[in-house]
Amino acid sequence: MIDLLIRGGLVLTLEPNTLQGPVYADGAVAVEGNRIVAVGPTAEVEAAFPDAREVIDARGRIVMPGFVCTHTHMPYVLGHNMPVDFSQLHSFWDMLQKMGWKWLEDLTTAQGVYAATRYAAAKMLKSGTTTVCELVEAPIALGRSPSPLQCSAQAVEEIGIRAQIGFEVTERVLGVPVLERLERANAEKGFTENLAFLEKHPPRNGSRVEGRLGVHTAFTNSYQTLRQAREVADTYDCGIEIHVAEIPRVFLVEKFGKSAPEVLEETGLLGPDVIAAHCIDLTDGDLEILRRNGVNVAHTPMSNSLGGNGVARIPHMLELGINVTLGHDCFFTLDYSQYFRYMYLLHKAHNANPMLIPPFQALDIATGNGARAMGLDDEIGSLKVGKKADLIVIRPDSPTPTTPESVISFFTMTFEGRQVEHVIVDGRVVVKSGRLTTADEDEVHAACLEEAKILWRKNGILI
Q1: Residue 276, helix vs strand vs coil
Q2: What whole-number distance in Å separates Cα of residue 448 and Cα of residue 113?
Q3: Which segments within 13-77 are labelled E, that is strand?
Q4: Which residue ranges does the chain devote to CATH 3.20.20.140?
Q5: What is the mean pLDDT of residues 80-86?
Q6: Strand 2-12 relative to strand 23-32, pairing
Q7: How many CB atoms lie under 10 A from the CB of residue 25?
Q8: Which CATH architecture is the domain 67-373 placed in?
Q9: DSSP 372-433
Q10: Which CATH superfamily is domain 2-65+381-432 in?
């Protein structure tokens, strides 16, 4: 007897990719433990596995792999809608130093990390995101118990999402402009936090939580720190998550005489185990550095637009064969469909070319490409026998028929996260009929609200 049978749905396997993957108009997925044991026509799967402990009737639904978000900062939800003085924010540099650091990251406690991560993870699960790459930024919480990464992992484990988690290594000094002073000792605190976490949650440990080394930027670190980051990644085989070229290229050129990709290549940090978030202000030479080092790019179009940063050269990256994925920084609604659709449309408008990023390519970016970037493509990102059972069931709210011929366009044209009905992660049903099964949603929301109020009061907001 198998543990779970999802039957009668329009099954998108996306294996090996969207264009080549079989689509079953009346399909089924069988799950035993945390693994997929069968995918195919319902009649065939039911004949092979006639008994199941739990059955999900997916008639009229879409069954597919969960979405993979390759760049998040879940505690950032504590700053959503915070009524600060926006007249101080004239550029992204202002937003980073004030909104990002002074008003948010530098005030976030471990308790805030825990409450915000539970809330964000729940919201992402309910809209179809089953895997995230999380970079925690809460420097005042370092050296205390519980640690920020412990709190992040606890939240992830409780809510049921899959995650690679790291703490940002940075030489930045709290309350001091980065143009004035950096301190290596602060980077060492970040390494200590990451190393302790990697000992407990090494890569490929079989669980939903793995460590990945977090690094802030080339700009806020020295060559010594960047080289050390590569040594740690090689020792633990854990990969690196880092922001690249989110700020204007000139900042790096003025500091080092080189661009961010040039600095990172010179220090040996780059490689196919690196996820580089943002990657906006890059020349052809910079992109060639990313390509030849096999770097994965986490595209974050909505947060980049909020900061007025510009538009990353995603179509050109795809032409070069760079593995492009989708992240979102945990801004806005956390509904992956909104980031997905914005990515799909932005580059058409920006380049005056409606042929860029067709629907099938957008779906690959949101699923298999993300799994590959995280080194998990043999485990998630498609529906295949032997892979982890991370999948979603969508009840399409569409004015037109959803068929094997129309379903790919459904995601760019019609899909919204509220249409996700069931979510399975690691073989466990974590969202059922639109409701979280792993925690009390009202309690999760209330706890996050309380931590947000605490943070807001630190910024002088009476609430």
Answers
A1: strand
A2: 9
A3: 23-32, 35-41, 52-57, 62-65, 67-72
A4: 67-373
A5: 90
A6: antiparallel
A7: 14
A8: Alpha-Beta Barrel (3.20)
A9: HHTT-TTTSSS--TTSB--EEEE----SS---TTTHHHHHHHT--GGGEEEEEETTEEEEET
A10: Urease, subunit C, domain 1 (2.30.40.10)
Share above pLDDT 70 across residues of the chain, in percent, rounded to a whole number: 100
Q: What stretches of 94-144 adopt beta strand conformation (E)? A: 129-136
pLDDT digit string, tens, across residues 309-332? 999 999 999 999 999 999 999 988
Q: How far is CA 372 from CA 300, 359, 380, 410, 440, in A?
A: 17, 19, 9, 24, 33
The helix/strand/coil state of 101 is helix
> How far apart are the C-alpha atoms of 263 and 342, rounded to whole Å?
31
Give the 3-state secondary structure percentages of the chain, helix then strand then coil, rounded to 5: 40, 20, 35
d(CA 45, CA 24): 12
Looking at the chain, the domain(s) classified CATH 2.30.40.10 span: 2-65+381-432
Give CA–CA dist 283/324, Å, rounded: 17
User: Cα-Cα-Cα-Cα dihedral of 333, 329, 167, 174, to 10°?
Assistant: -100
CA distance linking residue 22 with residue 103, whole number of Å: 48
Residue owning tokens 């900062």? 73
Look up residue 265 and give its two tokens. 């290549």
Q: Say how far apart CA 460 and CA 283 lie, in whole Å.
A: 42
- Alpha-carbon distance of 3 to 215, in angstroms, equals 40
Residue-wise pLDDT tens digits, 417-438? 999 999 999 999 999 999 999 9
The string of pLDDT tens digits covering residues 266-300 is 999 999 999 999 999 999 999 999 999 999 999 99
The span from the CA of 16 to the CA of 264, in Å, is: 32
Handedness of CA 108, 118, 122, 279 (dihedral sign): positive
Q: How many CB atoms lie within 10 A of CB 384?
A: 18
- For 406, residues 6+ apart whose C-beta sits below 8 A from its C-beta are 400
Question: CA nearest 328: which of 102, 129, 109?
Answer: 129
Contact 199, 236 (CB under 8 A): no
- pLDDT for 251 equals 87
The pair of three-digit structure tokens given for residue 4, joined into one six-digit string: 């779970």
The residue type at 458:
K
Distance CA(79)–CA(4), nearest Å, equals 39
C-alpha 180/C-alpha 336 separation (Å) is 38
